[in-house]
Specification:
Elements (H helix, E strand, L loop, with lengths): L62 H12 L3 H18 L4 H24 L1 H12 L13 E3 L13 E3 L4 E2 L1 E8 L8 H19 L10 E6 L3 H5 L4 E8 L6 E2 L11 H17 L12 H24 L4 H25 L4 H14 L6 H7 L19
Antiparallel strand pairs: 1-2, 1-4, 3-7, 4-6, 5-6
Helix pairs in contact: 1-2, 1-3, 2-3, 7-8, 8-9, 9-10, 9-11
Length: about 400
Amino acid sequence: MSLPPPSGPHQPQEPFQPPRSQPPEPYGPSPYPQQPGGFPGLPAYQPWSQGYRPYNHPAPVNGLAIASLVLGVLCCLPGVGLVLGLAGLRQIRRRGERGTGLAVGGAVLSGVGLVLWGVLLATGGASALWHGFEDGARGGRTLALAEGECFDTPGGALSGDTYDVDKVSCAGAHDGEVFATVTLPGGSYPGDDAVADTADERCWSLQDGYAMDGWAVPRDVDVYFLTPTEDSWAAGDREITCVFGSAAEGEDLTGSLRNDETVLDADQVAYLKAAHVLNAALDTAPDEEYVEDDLPGHRAWAGRVSAALGEQARMLRAHDWPAGARGPVAELAAGLDEARAQWAKAAKAEDADAFYEHYDTGYDLIDPSQAVAARKALGLSTTVPLREDGAGASLEV
């Protein structure tokens, strides 16, 4: 049998000598020293030391370090990102994991974000930032306008499509002034025509609540509205914005048209509320222009006007007016009583001729010029508005 070789590396008795018959190496001696048990001119491979095996798995990256960096970059939860970064550093040292740079970076970014959030909260910037996010969530529609605000449109016109407006002071020139907003019910989009019809009806009925004195609204001012589109509706937009704007294309408004209880005194408000009772009844005239085409409809309308005249006179007499306004208001109320009697007779007319007879007399008795003295005493506008055809005074008092 053979014996095993002795332990330890084999030490040759003398250096290895190549056979004399072997020709010398053409490129000179090998740069690699000969190792025991190896081949001449080639390096011998050393064994892999512990921890550096050729297929060794690297240490895992710490999860808290990754989360800290993500939150630090996003700057959404800076406090959480800072805590996670510090906790990640402790785990890395204890477990021998990787990710020290990630944890440090996340902690630093989160710390900076925490300082910025503190500044925003202290200066009110966080609220403005949140409103910006809310506007963006409206599907690109940034028309978040409130009652009493004025604005300019990019093209200077209040027609067509618009996706943004610039809020400006009402004291200077502006394209539009918001006098009301209307929120539509949910559900599927009702269609462009249905939305426009609703906006037209609601905005015209709401203008008196913002501009109570119609005489103070210039004749060249018209009512416009901003409505949701099908796309903005899908993003949650349900708001109709009612707007005053110039009837002349390209013209601006200057100064606020607001005259309601926030800017008027109690006496002015009492007078205008009484006047609105009659104006509301006058606005219910039948669609048929000629009495002959709808006598019953016109008689019913005359009855509503008669009742409104009685209520207006009662409201005027019930208020305690300033000394300078008592005489003019009492004279106006007396004229309303005379007009009420004529409209009541028109409501009972048996034919169109009889209707016209009482209607013409009653119409003259509520001519707006009869209210100028009372308005002047109360400090209200005394510029009598014109009819739509420009022929004379309207019935608005």
